[in-house]
Automatic annotation (TrEMBL):
Domain of life (superkingdom): Eukaryota
Disulphide bonds in the chain: 128-171
CDD domains named in the record: CLECT
Domain C-type lectin stretches: 198-306
UniProt cross-references to Pfam families, sorted A to Z: Lectin_C
Gene3D superfamilies given in the database record: Complement Module, domain 1 (2.10.70.10), Mannose-Binding Protein A, subunit A (3.10.100.10)
Name the UniProt record assigns to this protein: MRC
Length: 320
């Protein structure tokens, strides 16, 4: 109690307490943690809450003597079931625990403390006032984020993002965050895919022993994509460059003159397409509406979907 009581004030140092506050066993607030202290007795934990601005409750883990000072989260505190933890509203405790700081108000980010030189109360920096700007990342700490000064919190990037830098956000004195990483979108994360920034396209040429259009579509689906949809000439030109001069017949994501994205085929393809629901190898078949890129003056054509087999297919990963 020396930080909130004068050296000669024995009454302040030994407050008359009838017991601890109301306790909820097996619960902890995972969000809204302002400060976390190790090796702190329960009464000291409650005292720290009283003297720290915004603190409304405490988490306490007896096995580690681990104390969390918790504020009301504007989005609602996330409560975890935790058999090792107790949760307690600070209003159920005796305010005398706070000593001379009991009714002394400090601004956000600060706590009350007695100045030993002149026995005057003062507010000192205690924690970072706000949360760190950590876009596309999630906290990677066993008991959640805390805002202690000069303390780092470990983070991990969300799915489909990769970490660049060190995985920490540090609350630096006097209360400003320094984030040591960025999480950037992983483009074409699947093995073997090629990305074209101009068209935001992610494609991969796959070779098989021979596949119908339906099986080709299933192959792409297994990789998290689909047969490629080519809705613009800009994308068509990229794909032709990608396939190169030695391209073979390649299944693509066109059926009944619709792309897999649901778009109708554009009239800009009229000069390079021959879509006539006809396959010369299967003249008697009716389902001849599946798209192929041929090595031909009219490279965009349709073929039989269920019998005709080509070794090559072009998969696409859709990028938001």
């Amino acid at each position: 109690m020396n930080d909130v009581c004068s050296a000669d004030d024995d009454t302040c140092k030994k407050p008359n307490l009838s017991g601890v506050g109301m306790i909820e066993k097996g619960k902890c607030s995972k969000t809204g943690v302002l400060l976390r202290f190790h090796h702190l007795p329960l009464l000291e934990c409650a005292k720290e809450c009283f003297i720290t601005s915004q603190c409304t409750s405490i988490n306490y883990r007896q096995n580690w003597k681990l104390c969390d000072l918790v504020m009301v989260d504007p989005d609602g505190n996330e409560i975890d079931a935790d058999p090792s933890c107790i949760k307690s509203d600070i209003t159920t405790w005796k305010k005398s625990l706070a000593g001379k700081c009991a009714d002394y108000k400090c601004a956000k980010g600060k706590k009350c403390q007695l100045n030993a030189k002149d026995n005057e109360l003062q507010c000192v920096d205690a924690y970072c006032k706000d949360l760190p700007p950590t876009s596309n990342a999630a906290i990677d700490e066993p008991f959640g984020l805390r805002r202690n000064l000069d303390t780092g919190n470990k983070y991990k990037c969300k799915n489909d993002y990769k970490m660049e830098g060190k995985p920490f956000a540090v609350c630096q004195s006097p209360g400003h965050w320094k984030v040591l990483f960025t999480c950037t979108k992983v483009v074409c994360s699947a093995h073997g895919y090629t990305y074209d920034e101009a068209t935001n396209t992610c494609i991969k040429l796959v070779k098989t022993d021979g596949s119908t259009w339906m099986n080709a579509k299933s192959t792409c689906k297994k990789e998290g994509g689909d047969l490629v949809s080519i809705s613009t000439m800009k994308k068509w030109n990229f794909i032709i460059r990608y396939l190169g001069e030695n391209r073979k017949n390649v299944w693509i994501g066109l059926k009944d003159k619709k792309w897999m994205t649901g778009e109708d085929i554009n009239s800009v393809f009229d000069n390079i397409s021959q879509l006539n629901n006809f396959d010369p190898d299967y003249e008697k078949e009716t389902d001849n509406t599946c798209g192929v890129i041929y090595r031909s003056p009219k490279p965009l054509q349709d073929a039989n979907c269920n019998i005709q087999k080509y070794k090559w297919l072009l998969c696409e990963l859709l990028i938001p």
